[in-house]
Amino acid sequence: MQYDPTLISALEPDQLAAATMRPFPRRKLGRGVLALLILLRVYIVIAIPIVGYAFVHALLAPHQ
Amino acid sequence: MSENALNLGLSVLPGSAEERVTHEDVLRARDRLKILKTRAAKSPLRLLWLLAGPGVLVMLGENDGPSMVSYATTGATYGIGFFVPFILLTFLMAFVVQEMTVRLGVATHRGHAELIFQRFGPFWGYFAMGDLVFGNLLTLVTEFIAIQAGGLYFGLPSWLSVAIGVALVIGSLAFRRYATWERALMGLAAFNLLFIPAALLAHPSGADLAHALATWGPLPGGMGTAFLTLVLADIGATVTPWMIFFQQSAVVDKGLTRSDLPQGRIDTAIGAALAAVAAIATLVATAPLFAAHVDVSQFASGADFATALQPLIGTTGATLFALGIVEAGLVAAMTISTSSSYSLAETVSARHSLNLDFAHGRLFYGVAVASTLLAGGIVLIPGAPLLAMTLTVNVIATLLMAPALLLLLLLANDREIMRDLANGWWANLAGGTIIVTISVIGALYGVITVFPNLLGK
Lengths: 64, 457
Description:
The complex is a heterodimer of chains A (64) and B (457). With 64 residues, chain A is mostly helical. Chain A has helices at 5-8, 17-20, 31-60. Chain A is elongated. By secondary structure, chain B is mainly α. Chain B has helices at residues 3-6, 17-20, 23-40, 44-51, 54-62, 65-78, 83-108, 112-120, 122-153, 158-172, 178-189, 195-200, 206-215, 225-236, 241-254, 261-291, 302-347, 362-380, 386-412, 415-418, 425-450. At the A-B interface, helix 1, helix 2 and helix 3 of A face helix 2, helix 3, helix 8, helix 19 and helix 21 of B.
């Protein structure tokens, strides 16, 4: 495809595919955010067995 | 971190300018050029038309097969009453959540999955992507159940309606052009409004609707497990994880910038309003089943409702209802499979855009094609546990919405990437309230899943 600098200037520099493929650096997490993320992991540990139970329960339901 | 360190502009990239520009950039630049010219010509309506899309698609896409069944069940169980204003409230919640994704998209030009991966690390990145792709696959199955059920209403064999659905979903990817894909889907999504004439054919009372909106009542039967389940189902029908990932990625793929934020917000508000009207219309269309005391507890699909409605709202109304169910499944299958593509490709740093050609977007298109084929195939397996999958989808969506919302809120407060578009106090208050509400409701859902008789009938 023909390179047209005028056309490409319609994009902001950080919209270019090459720019967006460069990762942002990892965020430094404060204590509050870390605590929230730990709570989130606990929530997930509890939630996953419930999802499994719901699936097995639905599988074994008589109307299936 | 300084602003400059995050502003990865053209000047800091290696290679010549020509080498750095891709086919995807050229297509997006063409779309941007149209927008810049329209903005310069001061044509606000045309500008809104050009910039609209992600918001309308995400909201009408979420009015999917299972969602319309939830609204239909609500109408048939409770009639016109409490749930009319409640559905409006859920779409207000959806607007608050989705508006954050528009700001994230225009501020960072990154999709949601890649932002989680890059800012919070691989654990949360893979977790968010994994649960989304798995949940999306199960949801896709439910969309093909809707397409199959709608087809059966019109006398089409299951394999034919599923095959047509799969072909249309995969065929929509052949545009290899975001703008064309978006406009085609918006045209298809307009058929979600078929529920409005179906509702009118039910001859609803304007006074009943006004009374419901003003008083949040009546609520026949009061609050029990059935009520709570429908509350959860209606929230799950409006606010779900795939919407967050899809709209942010679509905003980026469309090329929206900070200057487009007002139109992005209006697009989301219009989408929420249209979807709310279609959802309430579905409830109103099925309210005659409540008046006729029809037991809908064994109804598994939208087609069952269409058949039951035939003697009450006529063949035309029932046909419009069945067509709306097919459309709901089809549009959702297209948007949800694309959200899986964006999410997986973003997480593994592969290229991700509907402007890619097939050679450069093998993984991106491959995910959508594979998940569509797999979901369509599962529906056609004789004796497949389709109802179990549908029920599990609801549980997954409700339980995993809280983590998805919390990560969204943390990103929207990340001032290093958001700068002046970071959440203000009102957005945090609204977002925080929604997270707490959904977490409590999700926990309740978990409890009644394990102990179904806890609250009585």
